[in-house]
Amino acid sequence: MVKQKIVLKLPLDGERNRRKAFKAAVGMAGVTSATMEGDKIIIVGDGIDTIALTRMLRRSLGGAELVSMSSGDDKRKDGYGTQDFELAAESKTRDLLTAMSAEADAKIAKGKKVRRAAKLARTKACDNKKVARAKALEAVGTAERRAHEAAKITKAKAQEAEEASKVATAMAEQAAMTREVANVLVRLKAKETEWTQCEAELFVTEFRCMWNMLFSHLGATFHETSKLVPLHSF
Predict the structure, then answer these.
(1) What percent of the chain has pLDDT over 90?
(2) In whole angstroms, what is the distance from residue 231 CA to residue 234 CA?
């Protein structure tokens, strides 16, 4: 395995952040040691994922800057010296990490944009739901008011029909009473006519009897000397 030495600059504004950074660093796979020097942390190990380490420290502390990274394989043996190759490797790694960090930042920005759009869509959907609910409640209220008004109109018409029925019943009763009175009057008239006829017949009968008593010895009876129609005998 290749031995690595990574130096990162961190926003260490307190002992708590120092402990947090140290704990996060030593917890990474491949890390064999970690030391703190001021606001820098020096990490040594084999097969360390530098990008994952940087991202983890950024998430934990809110920021992390790669200062240098060196490896045992970067040392040249042809006379140029170790420091030049370490600087070249550091520059190359910094450029690579900068590009990857920019890509990660772009992805983060895109994620934030997507989350903002989703939040806006949820807010809009919630607003639309509230509007729809308000419209539904308004429609229900309108329907209830119309139903109430229709019930009042129906009740009023029912009362009018009941009053009309009562009036019709009273008029029918009055008509029946009028017919009964007319029938009584007719019967009374008939009785009056009958009594009048009876009185007339009684008078004629008494007159005939008196006549026959006075003039029967002369051989003349009531029927023979009068032109009155013979009445029935009682």
Answers:
(1) 27
(2) 9
* Interior angle at CA 201, CA 197 and CA 202, nearest 5: 115
CB 30 within 8 A of CB 48: yes
Tokens for 131?
């509007």
CA distance 201 to 233: 9
pLDDT in tens, 151-186: 999 999 999 999 999 999 999 999 999 998 888 888
Cα angle, residue 113 at apex, residues 110 and 115 outer, rounded to 5°: 110
3-state SS, residue 23: helix
CA 146 to chain centre: 18
How far CA 113 is from CA of 56, 58, 103, 122, 124, in Å, comes to 22, 20, 15, 14, 16
Query: What is the pTM assigned to this prediction?
Result: 0.34
Query: Does residue 93 contact residue 66 with C-beta atoms inside 8 Å?
Result: yes
End-to-end CA gap in the chain: 162
